[in-house]
Amino acid sequence: MNDNSYEGHNANDAMIGIRVPLGLAFLPATAPLEFFLEIVPILDVLPDTDFDINGAIGVRFYFRYSRARILTVATPREIECSDSS
Questions:
Q1: Which listed residue, 27, 55, 57, 79, has the most CB atoms within 10 A of its CB?
Q2: Lowest mean pLDDT among 42-51, 58-67, 74-83
Q3: How far is residue 66's CA from residue 72's CA, in Å, rounded to a whole number?
Q4: How far apart, in whole angstroms, are the C-alpha atoms of residue 32 and residue 48?
Q5: Three-state DSSP state, 46
Q6: By C-alpha distance, which of 51, 53, 60 is closest to 22?
């Protein structure tokens, strides 16, 4: 058996399945960071039927940071100005 084996499968074996990532993300208002948590249920159907769960916790850093590009919020004053025209 190869060191890259997983439950009797080699790392080069083809597998077909369904992967559904679910997660949460937090973007602080004053920093170019994103903190995230992800849980991923996986149902493999070929060559064998198998169920597994993967997960991840991490941080992303945005090099070209602009909060306006990530999240745009209209203030009440902006809404009033657009209604009066």
A1: 27
A2: 74-83
A3: 10
A4: 43
A5: strand
A6: 53
47 near 15, Cβ under 8 Å? yes
Residue 3 C-alpha from the chain's centroid: 29
User: With contact defined as beta carbons under 8 Å apart, do 37 and 26 qualify?
Assistant: no
Tokens describing residue 57: 């916790």
Contact 55, 24 (CB under 8 A): no
Q: Which two tokens stand for residue 61?
A: 């850093």
Amino acid at the residue 78? E
Read off the pTM. Answer: 0.55
What token pair was written down for 36?
A: 């995230």
Indicate the DSSP class of residue 4: T
pLDDT, tens digit (0-9, with 9 covering 90-100), for 16-36: 999 999 999 999 988 889 999
Residues in a beta bridge with 16: 46
Name the DSSP class of 48: S
